[in-house]
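User: structure tokens for this one?
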Amino acid sequence: MRGTKDVDMHLEAVADELYRLPPGEFTAARNEAAKKARSHGDRQLAQQIRSLRRPTTPAWLANQLVHHHPAEMEALLDLGRELREVMAELGAEELRELTQQRYRLVSALVDQARSIASRQVGARVTDEVAQALRTTLEATLSDPGSAEAVASGHLAEALSVSGFGSMSAPEASPERTTKRSSREGTISDLDERRRRNARRRAEHDLEAAEKDERAARAAQAAAERELREATQRREETVAAVDLLQSQLAETMGALDERRTAEQAAHDQLQAAQRASEAATESRGTAHRRLQELAEPG
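Assistant:
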């Protein structure tokens, strides 16, 4: 019997696979996984797998963002943690600015989710589903539990916004105005963290691009080497063909000469045969004449 830790680790792996699937494939795959666990004698794991719920479309999109766009989702979760830390110190102007930044980030993620839906299942994300996804992503900014649920990539239902996520920007009070200098330091820290995150992502992208460039250069060098070798083989073949053609021309010339000599010998043989036949005929005629002369009159 597996220990609880082994069961959890197995369940995590199964859940990762299931929640990556399109919603239409989830139930059959889940039941098959539970059946497999039961056939291996692990009834507890089978029951846990069976309890996994098919994700709604907004939840599935959120899971795909976690799997396919981890850097952007991490930026969203970082922003949520930072906002929760400094929220009490923000004035109306700073809050409006951060609200706009939040809106742009969430909008970009919703656009990426639309692309995922089109690419993986060939479906168009409706405005209703997009709004549910937006609400789910915004929930991560105000609620740590929501952030943890989304980060798992195993979300089954869309989330709702609570706390400052659903609030409009408050008016700045005189007391907050007097604290502006201290708040500006906090906002600067927040901006610096975002810049560091962006810089890390840029460094990662640069490293990946350099790796791709090295691979492309290696492939180019291999292709150039293959081209040089193929060109050399072609030139060697052309040279061999030229040599063979030259040898063939010489052989054909010699053959023509031999044919001419053969024809001359043949003609000479025929002339000799005709001369021999004429001589034979003359000899016969002379012999007959001699016999006639030798007979008595």
